[in-house]
Design goal:
This protein is an alpha/beta fold. It has helices at 12-24, 36-46, 63-72, 86-93, 107-143, 152-164, 181-190, 212-217, 234-237, 253-265, 290-295, 301-307, 324-338, 348-356, 362-376, 403-417, 428-432, 436-446, and strands spanning 4-8, 28-29, 50-54, 76-81, 100-102, 171-174, 199-203, 218-219, 231-232, 242-246, 267-268, 276-277, 281-286, 310-313, 345-346, 381-382. It folds into four domains: 4-126, Rossmann fold, CATH 3.40.50; 145-313, Rossmann fold; 317-387, Orthogonal Bundle (Helicase, Ruva Protein, domain 3); 388-455, Arc Repressor Mutant, subunit A (Orthogonal Bundle), CATH 1.10.10. The strands form five sheets. A five-stranded parallel β-sheet has the order 2-1-3-4-5, with helices on both faces. It has a five-stranded parallel β-sheet with strand order 7-10-13-6-14.
Length: 455
């Protein structure tokens, strides 16, 4: 029998009687403890399955104090006592023991009480497991409620969230801009055991290159010029929770080396400070082809493997046509309420247009378009909608364009639409729903300049 039992009893005769009964019955018995102070180190070291504990013990603390400690650690315990004081017995019952063994006891009494205690403990653990599973399932459903879609592609994404959410596994979310990568990251955090802790979101493409290390890992006062105060880095701010590294493909190589250390060693080194352990779950996202970035020498292979433990591919909206109307109706309801409009439906012609458009900007483009349309709508039905001119998906030779070519075309289209205004109300950054510095970074990478003419 592998069951291990600890006896906490300060009376020599009773302790040895219990020891003999348990050993004859085939139980493994830990060294006898005569006080709470002696018992706790034995419990930490031996990890007993059940504890037989007297109420009155040597020292200042009683068996009732020890029972509370055992209850917190989900270790079964049975009181062994000759005490008949009702007040003491009531205090003992409040700890919810798995039984009382009254002195003097017989061998049969001890063994029957152990059987009862095991049964009750097993039932309680099974009930707790069922509740945890039910809670986890409920949390997963709650976390995924903002993800709208009935298509097979999105059903797979939701399944992946439910599988990986309750774990601590690193997740890499891949997909074009505007597909909802941050929404998925929030859902993963929401159905994880870390959901009560912070989720810190970092847009790696928006971080100034000279401040990346300070933003991520922090710095000590006086670590560099103008470091007038100590700064806590994002990883430390996310302690116990989740950090979401959006646009991880934009991270410079030097910062990638530091990031790799965090993932491997679970520690950060603030500028001018010492190494610190961090307990953080990492979720990253990118719209880039990281394998191509690795081949081009812009992304580290070892970091890619550390991040790509559990990849989730976000489908573009053009590949989930079944979800377009569900999303459009959801946005219609949201923005009609927000702007105080009594708009409730789309005309058949508008529905046809929505379904036929290619949505290069994905869900984000659909959301922005519906909001603009609701704002200018004067009736209760949206009977017209102004869709952007669809960019060419093939070049002059008839060969399908790459993702980067399509992205460049989409950015150019938006820039022309807003007369090359980058920031502020009505600017390209607002229409694309990205940070201005991210837009400038993408324009530089894609070779977009105002003098650019050809497509």
């Amino acid at each position: 029998m592998n069951t291990k039992i600890l006896v906490v009893e300060d009376q020599f005769v009773e302790a040895n009687n219990l020891l003999e009964i348990l050993q004859l019955a085939g139980y493994k018995v830990c060294p006898i403890a005569r006080s709470v102070d002696v018992a706790i180190p034995i419990i930490e070291r031996e990890r007993p399955d059940l504890v037989l504990v007297d109420i009155y013990l040597q020292g200042d603390r009683t068996g009732i104090d020890l029972a509370q400690y055992l209850r917190e650690r989900e270790i079964a315990f049975v009181f062994v006592s000759a005490n008949s004081n009702q007040q003491i017995l009531d205090a003992a019952k409040k700890t919810r023991p798995y039984g009382f063994l009254v002195k003097p006891f017989r061998q049969k009494d001890v063994l029957v009480m152990l059987d009862i205690a095991w049964y009750l403990h097993r039932q309680e653990k099974e009930a707790a497991n069922r509740k945890r599973q039910s809670d986890a399932s409920g949390k997963a459903e709650d976390a995924c409620r903002h993800i709208i879609g009935i298509s097979r592609n999105m059903a797979e994404v939701v399944d992946h969230i439910r599988v990986v959410g309750p774990t601590d596994t690193s997740v890499l979310i891949l997909g074009e801009s505007g597909t909802g990568k941050e929404l998925v990251a929030r859902a993963i955090h929401g159905c994880s055991p870390r959901r009560e802790k912070p989720m810190v979101i970092i847009n790696c493409g928006a971080l100034p290159e000279n401040l990346i290390e300070s933003e991520l890992f922090g710095h000590e006062k006086g670590a560099f010029t103008n470091a007038a105060f100590k700064k806590i880095g994002k990883f430390e701010l996310a302690e116990g929770g989740t950090i979401f590294l959006d646009e991880i493909g934009e991270l410079p190589l030097e910062a990638q080396v530091k990031m790799l250390r965090v993932l491997q060693e679970h520690e950060v080194e603030p500028i001018g400070g010492r190494l610190k352990k961090v307990d953080v779950r990492v979720i990253a996202a990118t719209n880039r082809n990281l394998e191509a970035e690795i081949a081009a020498g812009r992304f580290r292979l070892d970091l890619y493997y550390r991040l790509n433990v559990f990849p989730i591919e976000m489908p573009p909206l053009r590949e989930r046509k079944a979800d377009i109307l569900s999303l459009a109706n959801h946005f219609l309801k949201v923005f009609a309420a927000r702007h105080g409009k009594h708009v409730g439906e789309y005309s058949p012609e508008v529905v046809k247009q929505l379904l036929e458009y290619s949505w290069p900007g994905n869900v984000r483009e659909l959301e922005n378009l519906i909001e603009r349309t609701v704002v200018v709508c004067k009736g209760t039905v949206i009977d017209s909608i102004v869709l952007p001119k669809a960019p060419k998906t093939k070049n002059d030779t008839g060969i399908p364009k790459t993702m980067e070519e399509n992205e460049r075309d989409h950015i150019l289209s938006v820039l022309e639409q807003c007369n090359w205004k980058l920031h502020g109300t009505g600017g390209a950054a607002e229409l694309l729903d990205i940070n201005e510095s991210t837009l400038r970074s993408r324009m530089k990478k894609l070779g977009i300049q105002k003098s650019y003419i050809g497509r």
